[in-house]
Amino acid sequence: MAAKKFTLRGKKELIKKLKQFRGNVEDGAKKVVKSTSAKMVKEIKGKLADGNGDPSAEGSAPHSQKTRETKKLNSSVGKYDLKASVKWKLFKPRFGKEIIARVRVKFPGSNSFYGHMLEYGTTNMAARPFFWGTIRRNESAAKKSLERVIKKAAKKWKK
Questions:
Q1: How many structural domains comprise the chain?
Q2: How far apart are CA 81 and CA 3, in angstroms?
Q3: Is residue 7 in some structural domain?
Q4: Residues 46-93 pLDDT 10s
Q5: Is 90 helix (H, G, I), strand (E, B) or coil?
Q6: Does 122 fall in a domain?
Q7: Maximum pairwise Cα distance, the chain
Q8: What's the whole-model pTM score?
Q9: Domain span holding position 44
Q10: In angstroms, what is the C-alpha Rg of the chain?
């Protein structure tokens, strides 16, 4: 049986270019994830009106308040400002792995359950959505931005 031997010339240069391409994509993706996460948090916080002690209307975003009345209802809720509890965090990505950011409502020293109750409501309170609509609206824009990052890195790689 006949055999043909192939030799790849320029293998080191090719590997170097592929690593550079991957690095360009990851750097661009980090920027997109950071800017999208910050935008989402800003938009969510913008929905949360500063309360004056009055409850928010059913179906509208909740008020962000630290009032005496809120403290009486639940000390773990009243201590913290809802607006200040909306945050994002970028997890340190490992090279070649996913880039993960988390946007959430987190009160210091407690779980995120209060935000969940506001978003979806309870048996005694109508939903006051403020979180998931913003997340969903920004997802498609983030995907388009990531596509642009990949196309830009591919153009650089061709050169």
A1: 1
A2: 73
A3: no
A4: 888 776 666 777 777 777 755 444 444 444 444 557 777 888 888 876
A5: strand
A6: yes
A7: 89
A8: 0.70
A9: 23-50+57-158
A10: 23
